[in-house]
């Protein structure tokens, strides 16, 4: 088996070969023997390569981390290419190639559910341009006008004469042609592949152990490192006593990293791990080492009533309206830090020489990985390369390149030797960039007719951008804090019409690093808004669904209504079962969820079913969307049930799955996806639905128990009646 | 130097006696299909069969293995012919990122060997592996499908 991790002749190929002692991965740098092969394999354009045997290789710029974007993007290209789907394979161009070719593949970053929605246009155009070139090549061969030829199923046909040529036969000639100036994309009603539940292209190797993740990388002469950074984020490495462990089995070197971490390089992970555990290390955490969880809570609480705040959405005069309202409702909510806990811990392999630096890693942002490698290596980007491997989970965590930087800084201290750096699960959990922690004070005013006339949403807490991307702040404001609450726009607009509205954010940044975590700020914002809407509906004496539908804009209302209908909302449920609902717009899609739950007499919650509605504009692959929706609920509900990172003496207390529990098979609810694509826009799929699971469940719990849970995780609450 | 019986072959493993089997497989023998997820018996990503029993290899020191028969994910398909469990996984497209799936498939293999027609409760009890992508629904369906095949 050959896995091509990059492009053409300049690429590295990872080859697996059976050797005595099992499978090993050998590496070779393609040399002249590949030139002959390369001469026959023609790139039609940046997106499409066609082999003489008709095999179609579609290039995928985005990262595949399980979400299925590789398959969805290939469908988009293949739709316009008119190729035989059974002949399609894919490959990842490298970030270095992208830069060399003036970013012909556009953005490689894969986060914010953007994989398809921000590239559907140009990848389809890439497929269409290649098709036109193949048709033109056939027309030239037959000396007929291209307009008399059609393409379908990897074959060009001259309609009048019935002559046919396969794409494999035409590729060589087509590749020499100039690309068309403009192409016309198909009308969505003519789509044959887009919208179809096609199977994934990347399943087989994941069933046989052959799939190579970053952690599986092997290079000749490679050593393995593991690392420990100061347990208090922002703290420093003071000293370590290498002599104590240098003689331990397999240990090659003990190295400081970036002034805040130390790594052991050894022949195997276990030897590196054992030596690192035995290494005496002193940290300097300064004052941060005295910060306790209560200090963080106090900091956030203070922001709830602070005078100054960034305004994210405003209409009329919310404060005055609420002050003069017939009825006032108020509640304060709190959302904890949560870890990503990707199944594959962070890792990267680096090979550094003074002339060149290369890294191999799973990353959601190949170009950021390349930039991090170049910066750490202190080499120009043109002398560096990053090879993207399949990710064992990303969820936002692998959009950061901190681990790539560390791997390069270690490899730099061993020039010429490839080093694979692997984080232990403990390192992964304590050096994460966590779902940000916030609190929220919700205040509503109802008029005499029980209409919601004023609403103030005061968020207090962490900004991801302030920590990870301060250059993206707008006059100090992090607009992403308002996901789902924005005044308009195609991304995350607020769905309710409330005449007097104020949504503002008092930024309070504790020292623990926050990060993008599947769903990001829609997670807590959906809880704040949707749980509180139930509270307000109750104060208004109305059913939560009716109350919402009166205020929701049409697309929001349509999805919520479709979901409620499908779930049988309002109809009789089995004894002891209750429905809770929630909706939001995120990542360009409108979503809603209805949870059916019960709480036993001894307080055990069971989520029986979640009906999930989503309107992503177009649904490229319903089979994969279904899996993303169900998967998002597992991720979101895991966090709602158990997810809580706390600190003690400035350091994260949870270290592994024994102290940071996640959902297992026995807790998995039935999930029914209601896909209602209304067309005309392209929304995301990987993230949006995650946000509705928790508030829908919480609203159901209230109906079952009379308890308003305003702080997660649920494991901290006693759900027994009367308790 | 230990000699292990892995996937029907005798393989020499030169590693410290206390090294967990997981790392012997991955680093010494190059069998990287078996995954590291937690190192503390929580996640099941490292599951292999030892004399047919699903075992979390991160908890098995090399010197406890002897000549017991070890089967890893690489040892399931014979001459590229998938087992009926792998086949069911393929037909239902179970994996998302796939990282947990070696462990899932090994655990399911042991389950079906012991209980050819498992109930949902049997599946819940045997399949305690963690999947962060949330493939639980498909894993359950695939086990039932394989049981019928
Ligand atoms: S790595 Fe062995 S159970 Fe998680
Ligand atoms: S498929 Fe990704 S962890 Fe299970």
From TrEMBL, chain A:
Q: Which SMART domains match?
A: Ald_Xan_dh_C
The Aldehyde oxidase/xanthine dehydrogenase a/b hammerhead domain covers which part of the protein? 208-287
Q: List the coiled-coil residues.
A: none
Q: Mind telling me which residue stretches traverse the membrane in this protein?
A: none
**InterPro entries, alphabetically?**
Ald_Oxase/Xan_DH_a/b (IPR000674), AldOxase/xan_DH_MoCoBD1 (IPR008274), AldOxase/xan_DH_MoCoBD2 (IPR046867), AldOxase/xan_DH_Mopterin-bd_sf (IPR037165), N-heterocyclic_Hydroxylase (IPR052516), OxRdtase_Mopterin-bd_su_IorB (IPR012368), TAT_signal (IPR006311)
Q: GO molecular-function annotation terms? A: oxidoreductase activity
Which named protein is this? Isoquinoline 1-oxidoreductase, beta subunit
The uppermost taxa in this organism's lineage are: Bacteria, Pseudomonadati, Pseudomonadota, Alphaproteobacteria, Hyphomicrobiales
TrEMBL record, chain B:
The GO terms describing molecular function are: 2 iron, 2 sulfur cluster binding; metal ion binding; oxidoreductase activity
One Pfam entry for this protein is Fer2_2
Q: Which organism is it from?
A: Enhydrobacter aerosaccus
Protein's UniProt name? Isoquinoline 1-oxidoreductase, alpha subunit
Domain (2Fe-2S ferredoxin-type) ranges: 1-76
The organism's place on the tree of life at top rank: Bacteria
Key words, A-Z: 2Fe-2S, Iron, Iron-sulfur, Metal-binding, Oxidoreductase
InterPro entries reported for this sequence: 2Fe-2S-bd, 2Fe-2S-bd_dom_sf, 2Fe-2S_ferredoxin-like_sf, 2Fe-2S_ferredoxin-type, 2Fe2S_fd_BS, Beta-grasp_dom_sf, Diverse_Oxidoreductases
| CDD domains recorded | fer2
Q: Which SUPFAM superfamilies match?
A: 2Fe-2S ferredoxin-like (SSF54292), CO dehydrogenase ISP C-domain like (SSF47741)
């Amino acid at each position: 088996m050959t896995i091509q991790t990059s492009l053409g002749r300049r690429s590295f190929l990872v080859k697996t070969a059976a050797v005595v002692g099992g499978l090993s991965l050998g590496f070779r740098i393609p040399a002249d023997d590949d030139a002959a092969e390369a001469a026959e394999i023609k790139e039609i354009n940046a997106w499409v390569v066609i082999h003489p045997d008709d095999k179609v290789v579609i290039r995928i710029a985005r990262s595949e981390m399980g979400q299925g974007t590789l398959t969805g993007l290939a469908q988009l290209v293949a739709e316009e290419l008119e190729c035989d789907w059974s002949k399609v394979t894919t490959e990842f161009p490298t970030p270095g190639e992208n830069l060399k070719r003036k970013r012909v593949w556009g953005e490689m970053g894969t986060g914010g559910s953007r994989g398809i929605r921000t590239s559907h246009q140009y990848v389809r155009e890439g497929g269409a341009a290649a098709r036109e070139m193949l048709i033109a090549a056939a027309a030239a061969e037959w000396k007929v006008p291209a307009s008399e030829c059609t393409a379908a199923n990897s074959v060009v046909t001259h309609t009048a004469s019935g002559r046919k040529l396969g794409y494999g036969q035409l590729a060589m000639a087509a590749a020499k042609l100039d690309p068309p100036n403009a192409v016309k994309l198909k009308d969505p009603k003519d789509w044959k592949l887009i919208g179809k539940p096609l199977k994934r292209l990347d399943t087989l190797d994941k069933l046989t152990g052959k799939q190579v993740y970053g952690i599986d990388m092997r290079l000749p002469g490679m050593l393995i490192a593991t690392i420990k950074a100061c347990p208090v984020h922002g703290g420093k490495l003071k000293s370590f006593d290498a002599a104590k462990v240098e003689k331990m089995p397999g240990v090659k070197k003990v190295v400081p990293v970036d002034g805040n971490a130390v790594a052991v390089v050894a022949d195997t992970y276990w030897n590196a791990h054992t030596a690192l555990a035995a290494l005496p290390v002193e940290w300097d955490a300064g004052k941060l080492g005295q910060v306790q969880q209560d200090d963080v809570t106090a900091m956030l609480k203070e922001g709830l009533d602070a005078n100054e705040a960034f305004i994210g959405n405003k209409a009329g005069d919310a404060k005055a309206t609420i002050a003069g309202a017939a009825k006032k409702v108020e509640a304060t909510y709190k959302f904890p830090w949560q870890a990503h806990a990707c199944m594959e811990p962070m890792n990267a392999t680096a090979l550094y020489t003074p002339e060149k630096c290369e890294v191999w890693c799973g990353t959601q942002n190949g170009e950021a990985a390349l930039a991090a490698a170049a910066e750490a290596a202190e080499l120009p980007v043109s002398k560096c390369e990053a090879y993207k491997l399949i990710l064992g989970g990303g969820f936002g965590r692998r959009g950061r390149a901190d681990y790539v930087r560390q791997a390069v800084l270690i490899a730099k201290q061993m020039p010429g030797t490839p080093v694979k750096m692997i984080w232990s699960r403990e390192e992964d959990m304590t050096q994460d960039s966590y779902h940000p922690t916030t609190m929220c004070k919700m205040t509503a005013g109802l008029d005499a007719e029980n209409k919601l006339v004023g609403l103030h949403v005061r968020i207090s807490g962490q900004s991801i951008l302030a920590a990870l991307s301060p250059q993206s702040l707008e006059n100090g404001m992090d607009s992403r804090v308002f996901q789902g609450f924005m005044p308009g726009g195609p991304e995350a607009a607020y769905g309710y019409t409330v005449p007097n509205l104020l949504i503002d954010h008092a930024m309070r940044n504790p020292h623990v690093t926050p990060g993008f975590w599947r769903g990001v700020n829609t997670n807590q914002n959906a809880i704040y808004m949707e749980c509180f809407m139930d509270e307000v509906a109750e104060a208004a004496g109305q059913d939560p669904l009716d109350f919402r539908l009166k205020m929701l804009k049409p697309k929001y209302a349509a999805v919520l209504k479709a979901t409620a209908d499908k779930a049988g909302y309002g109809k009789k449920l089995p004894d002891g079962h209750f429905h809770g609902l929630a909706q939001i717009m995120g990542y360009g899609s409108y979503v809603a969820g209805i949870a059916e739950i019960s709480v036993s007499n001894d307080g055990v919650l069971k989520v029986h079913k979640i009906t999930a509605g989503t309107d992503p504009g177009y649904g490229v692959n319903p089979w994969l969307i279904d899996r993303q929706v169900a998967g998002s609920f597992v991720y979101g509900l895991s966090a709602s049930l158990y997810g809580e990172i706390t600190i003690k003496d400035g350091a994260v207390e949870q270290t592994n799955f024994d102290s940071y529990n996640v959902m297992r098979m026995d807790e998995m609810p039935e999930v029914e996806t209601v896909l209602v694509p209304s067309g005309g826009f392209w929304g995301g799929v990987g993230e949006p639905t995650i946000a509705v699971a928790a508030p829908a469940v919480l609203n159901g719990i209230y109906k079952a128990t009379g308890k308003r849970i305003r702080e997660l995780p649920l494991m901290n609450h006693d759900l027994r009646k009367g308790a | 130097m230990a000699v292990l019986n892995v996937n029907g072959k005798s393989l020499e493993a030169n590693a410290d006696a206390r090294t967990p089997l997981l790392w012997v497989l991955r680093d010494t023998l190059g069998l990287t299909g078996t995954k590291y997820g937690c190192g503390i018996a929580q996640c099941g990503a490292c599951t292999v069969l030892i004399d047919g029993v699903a075992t979390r290899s991160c908890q098995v020191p090399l010197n406890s293995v002897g000549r017991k028969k070890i089967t890893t994910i690489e040892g399931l398909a014979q001459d590229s012919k998938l087992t009926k469990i792998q086949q069911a996984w393929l037909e239902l497209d179970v994996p998302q990122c796939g990282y947990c799936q070696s462990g899932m498939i090994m655990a399911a293999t042991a389950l079906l060997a012991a209980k050819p027609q498992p109930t949902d409760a049997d599946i819940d009890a045997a399949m305690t592996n963690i999947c962060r992508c949330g493939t639980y629904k498909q894993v359950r369906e695939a086990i039932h499908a394989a049981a019928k095949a």
